[in-house]
Amino acid sequence: MSGKALALLRGGPLVNAILAKIRELAPKAVEAVGQAPIKIMDFCGTHEYTITHYGLRSLMPPEVELVAGPGCPVCVTPAFYVDTAIKLSLEGVRVYTYGDAYKLPGSGRPGGGIRSLEEARAAGGDVVVVYSILDAIRRASREGKDSVFLAVGFETTAPATAAPVVRGMLPSNLTIINVHRLTPPIMRYTFERHRENPIRGVIAPGHVSTIVGAKAWRFVVEDYGIPTVVAGFEPVDVLLAVMEILRQLSRGEPMLVNEYSRVVTWEGNRTAQKMIAECCDVVDAAWRGIGFVPESGLAFRDKYRIHDALLQYGIREPGPDEWSYDLPPGCRCAEVTLGMARPTDCPLFMKVCTPGTPYGPCMVSSEGTCAVWARFGGGGLAEEIARGIGLK
Ligand code: SF4
Question: Looking at residue 230, what is its pLDDT?
Fold first, then answer.
């Protein structure tokens, strides 16, 4: 994006005009739906970053509540997979991981209380942080050591895992712990959990939409009647999404709008979609603290199962009936992930659990809601500033 366009997107006059429109539309939307405040949910950790970092929550009128939804893949990675990677690393298998999963706590059961790959490495485990699976492939090919890659992420990172598998680029000594998860099924699950006090607007995830296309969110409007806007990550993008959702609500006309058309197309990245479909089947899958969600995960198709690390090392995944609640005692990460609690509702927030000493999974990744709120506040300081300049 050019500097001029960026300046326009971040400029005060535009922001003030959108905020004025939001304040005008909010009471009309409340009247139309008969619910206050109106809950608008984001489904991407980077949107939550934009909302919190720029204090957008504090600029909302009282009729509008911006709620963080499931937008952090690291946060929802079940402890079982972290434990498995820790165990393998301590047994001498090299574990390659993205940096944001390096500190992710597991259950603490394997290796006498070791809770993360970072701790496993300190205890002598073989753990290497990489930027991409291609780094892991290069190193595994060069060094010849038995290795696994911990593949975590939504639709955005799944093609990066699928492509080398389909193209036959994996050396025989490198297999994959495949923990990729899909966004539409967890959206459906989240809507059901909010049935009593429904979500009235969706800010659809910009990054995921680059892969799946804006069309992937049609079901939100058609099946649930919820206004949906695919939004970019500048503050103005998010404010425009809120304004558009309120406009639709006030008119009783739910629609799907692609505000992020400078990056996201209706069809998405077909090559990436084909790559995922060629590599993986869609399966029921576990989400941390939440349990099994139908058709929400990816598993290697039979012809690629040779690359499955669990199969390679004879590790059996727990089935739906065997899955246990896998958050540490007192951690409310599942409720935070589903937008049913705020980080500040957790008694451990910024006491036992901080970005430097994460206790629960939502405090680890830069996209985790607790980590974002810990860094920028959920609205406290920004709210005071907004009151000071007469916006609240
Ligand atoms: S503050 Fe920490 S312990 Fe509490 S919900 Fe968030 S991640 Fe879990």
Answer: 98
